[in-house]
Amino acid sequence: MVQQRVMAVFKPLLYTLLVANVFLFIREASPTKAIDEIGWLLLLAVFEWETRAGQAGRPVPRAALAVELGGYALALYAWAQYALTAEWLDLGNSTVWLALSALIVLDVVRPVPAGSAAFRRRLRWKLPLYLATLGFALAWGITGIWLDFWDALLWVLCFFIIEINIFRIETGPARRLASTP
User: Fold this and answer.
1) Are 140 and 152 spatial neighbours (Cβ–Cβ below 8 Å)?
2) Dihedral (CA of 125, 93, 140, 160) sign
């Protein structure tokens, strides 16, 4: 019960900070980074909806799919711009987040029971990717690029919430689905 109360305060606070951060990026960062932020905000919103609204394992409604595809289009545009302008840290970070989002989509489309072999395999894939995102954040912090450092930490925390939502699915509905003949 305490955990639910903490999340009831933590999640809206974190998402509010993230939205403020996106506006800060629109105002202060390069156009590519602003586009990247907007794309990932769209993706995060869809992931939050899919993992909270009992949508796991169900077909994605057209509106949600349109938002998700729009988010990916913006993120991929930014990824290409990072490659063209040789922004290697941003390119690496973007690549890792795209890989993580593919695994999250897999979790949403094909949920698996917690503790299963598939669950452990997905965790083995995700853990190094999340560690890499923290490594990118650390690199920005060490080089004194504080806005990117702050941004990276916020995104890791926001996706941690998505992972908590996924874990709830994997310990609930996915476990029940797996036990049904």
Assistant:
1) yes
2) negative
Q: How far apart are CA 181 and CA 179, in angstroms?
A: 6
Burial 108-126 (b: 16+ CB within 10 A, else e): beebbbbeeebbeebeeeb
Global confidence as pTM: 0.86
Query: Quick check: 175 and 58 in contact, CB under 8 A?
Result: no
Which residues have C-beta within 8 Å of that of residue 28, sequence separation ≥ 6?
A: 147
Residue spans per domain, the chain: 2-179
Give the tens place of pLDDT for each residue, 34-51. Answer: 999 999 999 999 998 888
Most distant CA pair in the chain: distance in Å?
55
Could you tell me the two tokens for 8?
A: 């009831």
